[in-house]
Amino acid sequence: MSMQWPKLLSRKRLGSNEDPSGSTVRTDFQRDFDRIVFCSAFRRMQDKTQVFPLSGIDYIRTRLTHSLEASSIGRSLGTLVGEQIISRHRLEDFEASDFGDICAAACLAHDIGNPPFGHSGEDAFRHWAMTAEYGQRRVDVLHGSEKEDFLSFEGNAQGFRILTRLQNAANQGGLQLTCATLAAFTKYPRESWLGGSRFDGVSAKKQGFFAADRDLFEEVAETTGMLRREPMRAIWHRHPLSFLVEAADDISYRVIDIEDGFRLGYLSLDEVLALFLPMLSSAGRQQERISRIRDDKGKVEFLRAKVINEAISQAMSCFLDNEQAILEGRFDQPLLSQIPKKAEMDRLIEVAVARIYNAPEVVEIQTAGFQVIGELLERFIQVLDDIADQGEKANARSRMMSRLIPEQFIGADRVPSNDLYTRLLLLTDFVSGMTDSYAVSLYKKLTGISLPGR
Fold first, then answer.
1. pLDDT per position in the chain (454 positions), as tens?
2. First and final C-alpha spacing in the chain
3. What stretch(es) of the chain map to CATH 1.10.3410.10?
4. N or C, which end of the chain is more exposed by having fewer CB within 10 Å?
5. Ranges of CATH 1.10.3210.10 domains, the chain
6. What sign has the CA pseudo-torsion 440, 117, 215, 182?
7. CATH level 3 topology of 241-357
8. What is the Cα gyration radius of the chain?
9. CA separation for the pair 306, 289 (Å, rounded)
């Protein structure tokens, strides 16, 4: 059995019965891109951590700028692959740009579900669910995927929820993106708990959707013809373009985090040259061109562009070489783990971990993020539980604090759901959607560290 490109490129919109657009001026996949750009969750990424939390330096990347750069890489990679796929399979109803636009939209949204403080923020949610005095007791009451959703909280699953439910919440299907874009977005097409079953491959290492959103993903998978890995479990083989989305993200952060590290003084020019030049097949010729660039910043920017271009080329070749295995679900590794320059790309990560990600000022703020996120979750779940259990008899403090939570994250008429899983899920929707600055500001106010207007 094999996935088929015409179905994989489905223009059907999740939650909409309207026929796909017949326009070639602004295609359905370009509309996906635009819908993501204009949604509030995308704008909030301008104040969410990429590597350096709450940085006061304008140059440093945030989740927003990283997503834009990954999207640019994804468009190039998708278009190059699309040219070859269309030729191989004689796909008369599609253009190479369709592949690029799907990848660009999926890349644009790939971090939209990340909570405050980056990946350490995800860890903070898990830590709260496993260890918090009150939160742990509440999570322990749940079972199966409903419990594991919090114990293994995952920004990718939160992202799927944002795109399909939380943005334009009045619409069935949220933003109503095409099923092709949503499938390409979902790098981990599985729920959080699989009944003890274990599955190999990169696509199975995390969950890509919450238990509450399983039906939505099942519709996406069925519409695009993704292959189910086991009949009785909610786990599928990846949509092929998801490999390109993953590669674009990997290329972006591996290369660009080194550039940011240079700009902040963690790495010298010579160290950056030693990392970037081995990636290039024409290193000697590039050194001559570098020598004509006067400032060090310009040299690094020039090399960064060349390294990204080389990585795109190698990722494209790897995908095309393994296309049939990908369509049949027999290939399940990151593309960058199979390219000729794998060792050189891995070296970028090794240096970033040693010299950048673990820099004291980064770790200090990320550690503080654990306190901020944990405290917000712990205080607000007690408030919601009190109101859910006591109704109008809830204490005055709970009623007052609940006013800090938008109605969307409590329930209709500001009445919390009687279902504990739903209450916890809406709370994580609220806290994970905060920007870094807002989370810190609200934490200070709730704990009395600062007062409004002070």
1. 899 999 999 999 999 988 887 666 789 999 999 999 999 999 999 988 766 655 555 666 788 999 999 999 999 999 999 999 999 999 999 999 999 999 999 999 999 999 998 888 999 999 999 999 999 999 999 999 999 999 999 999 999 999 999 999 999 999 999 999 999 999 999 999 998 788 999 999 999 999 999 999 999 999 999 999 999 899 999 999 999 999 999 999 999 999 999 988 899 999 999 999 999 987 677 787 888 898 999 999 999 999 999 999 999 999 999 999 999 999 999 999 999 999 999 999 999 999 988 878 778 777 888 899 999 999 999 999 999 999 989 999 999 999 999 999 999 889 999 999 999 999 999 999 999 999 999 999 998 876 555 5
2. 64
3. 241-357
4. C
5. 5-114+154-239
6. positive
7. putative deoxyguanosinetriphosphate triphosphohydrolase fold (1.10.3410)
8. 23
9. 12
What's the full length of the chain, in residues?
454
d(CA 125, CA 428): 8
Widest Cα–Cα separation across the chain: 76
Whole-angstrom distance, CA of residue 153 vs CA of residue 145: 11
C-beta separation of 345 from 254 below 8 A: yes
Whether 309 and 73 have beta carbons less than 8 Å apart is answered as no
- Could you give the CA distance from residue 381 to residue 420 in angstroms, rounded to a whole number? 10
Beta strands in 75-156 (DSSP E): none
Contact 232, 247 (CB under 8 A): no
CB 376 within 8 A of CB 439: yes
Measure CA 133 to chain center: 29
d(CA 69, CA 424): 33
Contacts with 167 (C-beta within 8 Å, 6 or more apart), sequence order: 39, 40, 41, 174, 175
Question: How many CA within 13 A on the CB side of residue 23?
Answer: 8
CATH superfamily membership of 5-114+154-239? Hypothetical protein af1432 (1.10.3210.10)
* Closest to 173 measured CA to CA, from 217, 238, 224, 207: 217
CA–CA gap between residue 347 and residue 345 (Å, rounded) = 5
Tokens of 155: 């920004």
Q: What is the distance, to the nearest Å, from the Cα of residue 254 to the centroid of all Cα atoms in its chain?
A: 16
Q: Contact at 8 Å (CB) between 160 and 214?
A: no
What residues have CB less than 8 Å from 279, skipping those under 6 apart? 306, 307, 310, 311, 341, 344, 345
Say what the pTM is: 0.95
